[in-house]
Every structure is written in C-alpha cells, then in structure tokens.
Amino acid sequence: MDYQKRLAQKLIPAEEAVIQIPDNAYLVTYGFGEPIGLLSRLAELKGKRKGITYVDSLNAKRYPLFGDEEMRGVVDAESIFFGHFCREYQKNGRISFVPNHLGRGYKDKLWEMKRHHPERPIVYAIQVSPMDEHGYFSTGIVGMSNRMIVENADIILVEINENMPRTFGNTYIHIDEVTHAYQGPNEMFYMPDRPLTETDKMIGQYVADLIEDGSTLQLGIGGIPNAVAAALRDKHDLGVHTEMLSDSLIGLYKAGIVTNHAKTIYKDKMVTAFSYGSKAAYDFLDNNPNVLHLEVGHVNDPSVIRQNRKMVSVNTTLQIDLMGQCASEAIGTLQLSGTGGQTETASGARQSEGGKSIIALHSTANVKDESGERRRISTILGVQPAGTVISLLRADVDYVVTEYGVASLRGASLKDRAQELIGIAHPDYREWLTREARKYYLI
C-alpha cells in the first residue's frame, strides 16, 4: 500500500492545524509530547472559536493561552498534573486541576467527557516521529493513554517531529487513524542536568541500602531519585518497572546493573509509561526493543506492579506528619504538581513479595513567609494542617528516609511511628516534634 500517498493527502500546513479544532471541543494532549506548534498558535482562535477545553498533563512549556485574559471562554485549561508554572494560573482561574491517580487520570477524564458532554468532540493532538514504511507514527517518549485516546477521539492531529525517537509498546498511531498531519518545529524537551547535593547523596545511600539484588525499581523525578540510582552501583540484576524513565535508570542499564533478568513480568524489558531525559537518553530509546512504553493504566496498576518480586517504589513528598501521612502535591489547596502514580506504585510495591514502599525527603525546606522572606521549616510535622491534600495514606508507607536515617513504619503503632520519624527529623526540630506528638496523643 502507498502510505506516503495517504500521508500526502492528510498533510496540511502547520499554520492550519489550529483551525481544525472546532467549537466546544476537548483538546487532549500530554506534556513532553505536547504539540508545540499547535499550542503556540492557540491565541489565533480568538474571535474564531469558543468553548474549547484544553486537557493536559505536565505541560513542559508556557503557552499564550495561560496568561491571556482574552483567551478566557475561547480556550480554558484543565490539568491531570501541573507543570511548575501552572500554579500561578490556578490563582487567576486560567487552569483547574483534575484530582486523580495518574494510572486512571485520563480514563476517568474520558469517562466524564463522554458521560456528561457526549456532544462535545474530542481532539487528540500529539507529537510523533516521522511515519515508517508500514504507515505508523510513534508517540516516542509518551506511552501514557495514547491508544485509549486514539480509539475515542473524533479528530487526531499529529505534529511530526524529526527528533522524536521511535519507541515500542503502545506508542503507535497509523496513518489511517490520523485526521491531519503537519510538520512541527522539531523541538524536544530535555531534562536539565542538576548536580546532586551532599544531602541528596546521603539520602540516596540510605535508600540504596534498603534495595536488594534482584529488585525491580520505580523511581520518580528529581535529585533524590537520581542520587538513589547513583548509589546503586554495587547492586546486581536490578529491573525497571517505572512510571517515568530517565537518564539515571538508563545509566544503570548501560553499566550492567539493571539487567531485567530477575523480573517476574516483562522479563528482560524495561517498562515505563513515559520518558524524560537528555538527548543521549532519547538516542538510547530510539528503535530499542528492550524498552516498552505502555499505557499508564497498565504500568501503574497495583495488581500488575505487585507481580514483580522485590518491587521497590521510591517516591518523594513535600511534607509528612508523625502518623506517616504524606502531602506530596499541594500546599493547602494550592496545587503544585499532582498525585501522579505515588499511591498506585506504593500500593503495588507493598503487595509485592519482598517489596517495599519508600518515601525520601530532605528533613528541612526553605519557604517564603507572608512577608516574602525565606525561612527554614521542618518537612516532618506533628500533624498536617487543616485543608492539606493527603497524597499517600499512612498505611501505604513502609520506610521514610531523610539525611538523618531511616524510619521503619510498616506494622508500627502510632507511638512507634512518631518516635521513628522524630529520630530522622532535623535535630533542631526534634524537641518541638516531641511536644507535638504529646499534644496529639501520639506518644
């Protein structure tokens, strides 16, 4: 079949892509695979379209729609997971958060769309690699809910990126499924290279000491997960089943530490829902059958995760109280990020034979007070303040790690939990935390 001829019939100029979005549509995409060319032109819809809802997850870049008041009612935004700049737009009502566990985030949103607004068209717009000889595009670093949305969308717009790696798993879209294709700006998002702090390294070593040979890993994003990976250089036969794949885990694979031989499911394969890393990482992923980018509803399903023996989930949190409740995504009602897969991966790891759910964080943080001055606070609290969003329940935490050591919470009473957590708090706050524990009848 002449797939190139079919592609030619569906190719449109990049500037015409945005006008393919009809009134009252849901415009759905994913961060890091977001269609930069199309999103950069959304302001052109002023006076031409209305009632569009933009649904994203972890936007990697600011676009005109967020800061432009004239876009209100033209394109309004909802997010499954906030990018770092989204919080400021929550304050002026330009974006609203969708509470979710990432494994079900898009599935639940799709349910809401179809149940309550079946008359509204769904437009799926995503970056893809160039089409191959069989007529397939690849969404590259984004597996997520690609196939689910393709199968439910009314309009599919693919933005071709010459630099997007071709990956295996649930990343395929066939030319016959595409409504229109257009050439994008070929821009990729790369993870910044941030040096590890001494505190990161101390925490990383404590976490690494909890990880046994033959374990399968789920690591999050940031300095602490990178430090954990750096501290695993003396381990053997590790595996990867993770929500996000980055350079740190790829580095362990290249070093022969991650082999995936001991995995129970997807043996000899690294499994992820999406990837975010350097150009070298994306070069590694390109046409690499040893890495599967699968639907996040499958990757993050606790009943799937638990099938791996010695499954270890390492997550971070903003603050934790003396009962073990983790606030990982918001300060009060101000959304900072998202729940992500923290609850799902922690639960799956705890159910795994020999598995562990680990929360790792710095013992203190520097925050701005009401006057704008920065001050140091303890990230371990007596109890979470009223209105705090709890991302991970106290019953789903096995170990908590700071630079001062490891607190073991599995099976521990409230009294023992409080004492364990006080023991790994910053020394300057331990006396205060002891008073807090007594105040709330924990010890």
Task: Give the second-level CATH assignment, the architecture of the largest domain.
Answer: 3-Layer(aba) Sandwich
Radius of gyration: 23 Å
How many structurally independent domains? 2
Number of helices: 15
Mean pLDDT: 95
Amount of helix: 25-40%
**Overall number of strands:** 25
How far is it from the N-terminal to the C-terminal residue, by CA? 73 Å
**Class of the largest domain in CATH?**
Alpha Beta
CATH topology of the largest domain: Glutaconate Coenzyme A-transferase
Overall shape: globular
- For CATH, the homologous superfamily of the largest domain is named as Acetyl-CoA hydrolase/transferase C-terminal domain
Q: Poorly predicted ranges (pLDDT <50, ≥5 residues)?
A: none
Q: What structural class do helix, strand and pairing data support?
A: alpha/beta
Query: What amount of the residues lies in strands?
Result: 15-25%
Largest pleated sheet: 9 strands, mixed
Strand order of the largest sheet: 8-14-13-12-11-15-20-24-25
Walk me through this protein's architecture.
With 443 residues, the protein is of the alpha/beta class. It has 2 domains: 3-183, Glutaconate Coenzyme A-transferase; 198-439, 3-Layer(aba) Sandwich (Glutaconate Coenzyme A-transferase). The protein contains 15 helices and 25 strands. It has helices at residues 3-10, 36-39, 64-67, 86-91, 102-116, 146-150, 198-210, 223-230, 247-254, 279-285, 296-299, 302-305, 342-351, 414-423, 430-439; strands spanning 26-28, 52-56, 75-79, 95-97, 122-128, 136-138, 155-160, 168-169, 172-174, 180-183, 216-219, 239-245, 270-275, 291-293, 311-316, 319-321, 326-327, 330-331, 334-335, 356-360, 364-368, 374-378, 380-381, 399-402, 405-408. The strands form 6 sheets. The chain has a 9-stranded mixed sheet with strand order 8-14-13-12-11-15-20-24-25, sandwiched between helices. Strands 4-3-2-1-5-7-10 form a 7-stranded parallel sheet. It is globular, with a radius of gyration of 23 Å. The termini are far apart. The mean pLDDT is 95.
